[in-house]
Amino acid sequence: ELAATGSRTWGSWWDGRGLLNLRIYDFALYVDGAKAKQSRLGRRYHNRPPSKLQKDYYESLRSSKDIGMSLVVRTNYALPIGIMAREYERILRKRIAVVGGNSNDPHLNKMLEYFKEPNLPQHVKWGRNTVRK
After folding, report:
1. pTM score of the predicted model
2. 13, 68, 73, 131 — which has fewest CB within 10 A?
3. Cα separation, 64 vs 40, whole angstroms
4. Among 17, 22, 10, which Cα is nearest to 90's?
């Protein structure tokens, strides 16, 4: 089930690029709803509204072994693989730290390996060193 969506833009009013405001990539987070409801975390926070969730909820969600989650990322432009990989790594490490995790988490490092050129499936590549839109 779709749990969250978002996008990353390039361009900010603070650095003078505000008129550009280009969407670099979109993302979607999918969660296995049935597993989430049956998980320890799901039972613990079953009837709490999102506004009442504490920081420990997000920490527990991040490291839960009994909830299946998938992250789908789609670039909006043909981007060099190195730029895409560095951007994803920077954002993901920052987000993990925000929810109280370790930015050098071995599971995160393993996931980031998928963004390296030799590990990307051929159908997402566009030429050499570029990711297809």
Report:
1. 0.56
2. 13
3. 9
4. 10
